[in-house]
Design goal:
This is Dnaj subfamily c member 22. With about 475 residues, this protein is mostly helical. The chain is built from 22 helices and four strands.
């Protein structure tokens, strides 16, 4: 079975189990978590199966995922072949200009020695040992060894330039090889490779970056919280967008650093001060971030990810999930609105506050529990719960002013003026009671404001209905 391939440390993953997880929990990324693809699983969970499309697409991808996690030899050879074929353009230019590095020359000498001066065998050893590098020509092994013995250097010496080089002795040759072996990072360049452009991965990066960027933007409170204006948090929008692109770019055998994506996103974000249309500057920021990451940062992941313990994986996934849910919570709590049975919209955080005050009354609590158990249509139950929950604060406002629900606007105004004069903080001389009077005075002002707004809206609606 493909799920039981060799090459992994510990028990291999099963294709059958992966498909069972896909069938029953695929919309939440269960099969991906099982296959240790935590980043992809988290994205699937946060988008409910990649909006359903990713869940369906995984039908054909699961066998390959299982082979990859089990490090199937045939699949590994195919991946290494792609790594050799698709190399970064800049890396090829550097390689043409500088040819081979000292590290590579030293590795050629080591392979040539292991092959007992057989250049064909040395080429085979070099290809298997360094699958990400360009394989030198057979003649290169012979020439490098000859130059090292005759001229004491790896590369061809420049004639009539500089000081003359001493001829390499056996002792000096061993010293050079020992230096290269002890410090292999003496390269003048870094051999790097990049995966080919994938339209599906690029679109996925665009979609996830858009989702996370928009989520950060809508989670910022629109109105001040405790007299603090939090609109400066809009500078986190490019960060959310770029992290979404980076997470998609680090799925599977591809990887990349996040700094290029973050930097390009912030540079493109400045275009919002040139284009005031949100769709223009947001799209420009998103495409710039995705293209910059794909062009300059994306590369192959030559080795398997370091395996974390189960507890560590659970901690990371839980923290990411809590952060994601908290952003949605901020959006609903600070910027969400609830519509009551009269069609009036109330901010969600105000509705929660009024609902909490309503629950203090035990009779209301009993009524809410009774309504939840009644066999009535869900929409009617919802309307009755909204009315009894007093999301607008109307019932509590009447209670604060000591009036009934049939009171007119003139009665409300008269009662408000009377209570305001009675509980005005300036009339209370006792410092111990002054704070209590101030809180009572604020409740009266808030209750009058709520009732006045509700009366005004209803009066406007009644006039509109009469006209219609």
């Amino acid at each position: 079975m493909a799920g039981n391939g060799s090459g992994s440390k510990g028990a291999g993953k099963s294709v059958v189990v992966a498909y069972i997880c896909w069938l029953f929990g695929g919309m939440f990324g269960l099969h991906l978590f099982y296959l240790r693809r935590d980043a992809q699983g988290f994205l699937t969970w946060s988008t409910l199966g990649g909006y359903g499309l990713g869940w369906l697409a995984d039908i054909t991808k699961i066998p390959r995922y299982v082979k990859e996690v089990n490090e199937d030899p045939e699949l590994m050879r195919e991946i290494y072949r792609k790594m050799r074929e698709h190399r970064k353009f800049f890396s090829l230019i550097i390689q043409i200009c500088f040819h081979y590095t000292f590290e590579e020359y030293g590795d050629m000498i080591m392979c040539y020695g292991e092959a007992r001066s057989n250049s064909y065998e040395a080429q085979r050893i070099y290809r298997e040992r360094y699958p990400l590098r360009q394989v030198p020509n057979v003649r290169t092994f012979i020439d490098v060894h000859r130059r090292l013995r005759e001229d004491g250097c790896f590369r061809k010496p420049k004639l009539n330039s500089g000081v003359s080089r001493t001829r390499r002795t056996v002792r000096n040759e061993e010293t050079v090889l020992r230096m290269v072996e002890n410090n292999p990072r003496t390269s003048t360049r870094k051999t790097s490779s990049a995966p080919p452009f994938s339209i599906s991965r690029f679109i996925s990066a665009i979609m996830i970056g858009y989702l996370w960027g928009q989520l950060v933007m809508i989670a910022i409170p629109e109105s001040p919280i405790a007299n603090y204006d939090l609109t400066f948090l809009h500078w986190l929008i490019p960060l959310g967008c770029s992290i979404g692109v980076w997470v998609v770019g680090n799925i599977g055998r591809e990887t990349g650093k996040p700094w290029i994506a973050i930097g390009s996103a912030y540079l493109a974000y400045l275009s919002r001060y040139l284009y005031y249309d949100e769709s223009v500057w947001f799209s420009l920021m998103l495409v710039t971030c995705a293209l910059a990451f794909d062009t300059f940062s994306k590369e192959w992941r030559p080795h398997k990810k370091e395996e974390r313990s189960f507890m560590m994986r659970m901690v990371i996934i839980t923290l990411c999930g809590l952060l994601y849910i908290s952003l949605w919570g901020c959006y609903f709590y600070f910027n969400g609105k609830i519509t009551d049975s009269n069609g009036d919209t109330v901010p969600f955080h105000e509705a929660v506050h009024h609902f909490y005050i309503t629950l203090v009354d035990r009779s209301q609590t009993v009524s809410l529990r009774y309504l939840c158990l009644r066999s009535t249509p869900w929409y009617e139950v919802y309307k009755q719960i909204i009315d009894l929950s007093d999301v607008t604060g109307e019932q509590n406002a009447y209670k604060v002013l000591g009036l009934g629900p049939t009171a007119s606007q003139s009665e409300i105004t008269a009662r408000w003026r009377s209570l305001s004069r009675e509980f005005h903080p300036d009339k209370i001389k006792d410092p111990a009671k002054q704070r209590e009077a101030q809180e009572r005075f604020m409740e009266i002002q808030q209750a009058y404001e709520i009732l006045s707004n509700i009366k005004t809206k209803r009066k406007r609606k009644n006039k509109q209905s009469v006209r219609d």
